[in-house]
Amino acid sequence: MPTAVITGTSRGLGHALTEKLLSLGWYVYGISRSSSRIPHPNFQEYLVDITDESAVQRVVNSIKEAGKPIELLVNNAGAASMNAVLLTPFKTAESIMRLNYLGSFNTTQLFGKIMARQRHGLIINITTVAVPLNLEGEAAYVASKAAVEALTRVTAREIVAQGVKIIALGFGPIDTDLTRAISRDKIQKINDQIGRPRGTTLNEATDFILEKINNAEIISGSVEYLGDIR
Amino acid sequence: MTRPESIALILKRIQILGAELAKPELCQATEATKLFGESSSLDSMGLVTLIADLEEDIRQQYKISVTLVDEKAMSRLTSPFRSVHHLADYITLVVNDTKS
Asked: Within a domain: residue A230?
């Protein structure tokens, strides 16, 4: 039974991906601040803030005790903030960077060590089309995800020798809590820009992720978006 | 943890890495073996692999989590990663400090 660790499983994409992997026979460890309410015998959750280094270390120790090889880590937990650069409070920019970038940094490092030891594993960082689109009104979010993309490219070079791969996958607006604050007009404009006028469903997003998980030829360090990005 | 235990732990791990990287000279490693620099058989990524593996070995054998590369390690006058000899001194110190 392959084993995955997914962050941000309580809602949205993380929740949907967890349910999909469970249905395909995976064992899933979820890391989330609030409960995912997924009653499944192959799902175990840890209620932890991923930016808390020592708390995540304790989770890693607990998972190691179980002794299952970890095939997959999905750094999905994240938050967005809609605001103009000139009006965004410093604390907001800081907390977005902390969760989206440092949270992924922390789990990549701690689970990356397990994978390096195993000499195999795949890490998937979730990013957004807002990065290549340079989406106005989301500077703090876009900058944090650009940092995640850079982390992906550099880490790929550092862990290739240990047989571990890392990629970043980005999406346009998916109908989740993260995008509820964005106006319909703006969402439509983004979807038109990326050649997906009907938007992206959770199912399409999880299928895109699965396609990459199942692709043994995937190029480590690559950043791919679901949509037509020019 | 005693220093000979530390030496044994490091040499065993270097030998495993040497077999994996097909570098027979690493399989013959001694206390004097250099871990980085021009005369070392390990490149920088090999050293990273070695350190990460040793952290895990220590966790398994001594039931403690240690971080071998931090500001404390980097600010030492003599790098603990210079040779097996220096690394053994450092690991012995870190493990015993963490345990106490």
From this structure: no
Q: Are A5 and A26 in contact (CB under 8 A)?
A: no
CATH of the domain spanning B3-99: 1.10.1200.10
- Give the CB-side neighbour count of residue A49, counting CA atoms within 13 A: 9
Domain that residue A129 falls in: 3-225
Pick A117's closest partner by Cβ from B45, B48, B53: B53
Quickly count: other Cβ atoms within 10 Å of residue A201's Cβ.
Answer: 12
**Residues A118, A52, A202, A224, CA torsion sign:** negative
| Positions of chain A with pLDDT under 50 | none
Taking alpha carbons only, the member of A119, A105, A120 closest to residue A7 is A105
| A30-72 pLDDT per residue, tens | 999 999 999 999 999 999 999 999 999 999 999 998 989 999 9
Quote the minimal CA–CA distance from A36 to chain B in Å: 29
Residue ranges of the domains in chain B?
3-99
Q: Give how many domains chain A has, as a whole number.
A: 1
Q: Is residue A204 part of a domain?
A: yes
CA distance A190 to A192: 5
* pLDDT tens digits, A83-108: 999 999 999 999 999 999 999 999 99
Question: Do residues A116 and B49 make contact, with C-beta atoms less than 8 angstroms apart?
Answer: yes
Domain at A103, CATH number: 3.40.50.720
Q: Which of B47, B45, B44, B46 is nearest to B87 (CA)?
A: B47
Q: Is A118 on the interface with B (CB under 8 A)?
A: no
- In this prediction the ipTM stands at 0.77
Cross-chain CB nearest to B52 (options A57, A64, A116): A116
